[in-house]
């Protein structure tokens, strides 16, 4: 795992350190899956403040940490904003089709549950 060298730099696992069970755990939570779905739709980076999760700020911070430490997202500071992006290339190289399958399944489930 790359270690943070300053308080403005966040630790992330290297590609070869990303584990399937950590990724599946990160994606198993509805709030974290919502974040991943929104990042996938944006096809770029979004700031933490963009997300309106129905949980406390400390819980939101926890969810982002789980996503980052599992290797699902990369977080970087840009000025005062903490920006988030999917590690789509890393995940596709390690687990081909996994992210797209999970995102597709989540979309189908949402349609089924909401009737739309």
UniProtKB/TrEMBL annotation:
Record keywords: DNA-binding, Transcription, Transcription regulation
Annotated InterPro entries: HTH_ArsR_DNA-bd_dom, HTH_MetalResp_TranReg, WH-like_DNA-bd_sf, WH_DNA-bd_sf
UniProt-listed PROSITE patterns: HTH_ARSR_2 (PS50987)
Keyword DNA-binding belongs to the record: yes
Chain ranges of the HTH arsR-type domain: 12-106
GO molecular-function terms, A-Z: DNA binding; DNA-binding transcription factor activity
Top-level taxon in the UniProt lineage: Bacteria
Protein name: DNA-binding transcriptional regulator, ArsR family
């Amino acid at each position: 795992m790359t270690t943070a060298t300053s308080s403005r730099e966040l630790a992330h696992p290297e590609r070869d350190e990303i584990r399937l069970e950590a990724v599946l755990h990160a994606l198993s939570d509805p709030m974290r899956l919502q974040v991943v779905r929104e990042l996938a739709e944006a096809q770029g980076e979004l700031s933490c403040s963009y997300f309106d999760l129905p949980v406390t700020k400390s819980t939101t911070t926890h969810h982002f940490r789980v996503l980052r430490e599992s290797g699902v997202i990369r977080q970087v500071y840009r000025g005062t904003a903490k920006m988030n992006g999917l590690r789509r290339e890393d995940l596709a190289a390690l687990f081909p089709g996994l992210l797209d399958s999970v995102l597709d399944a989540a979309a189908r489930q949402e349609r089924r549950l909401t009737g739309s």
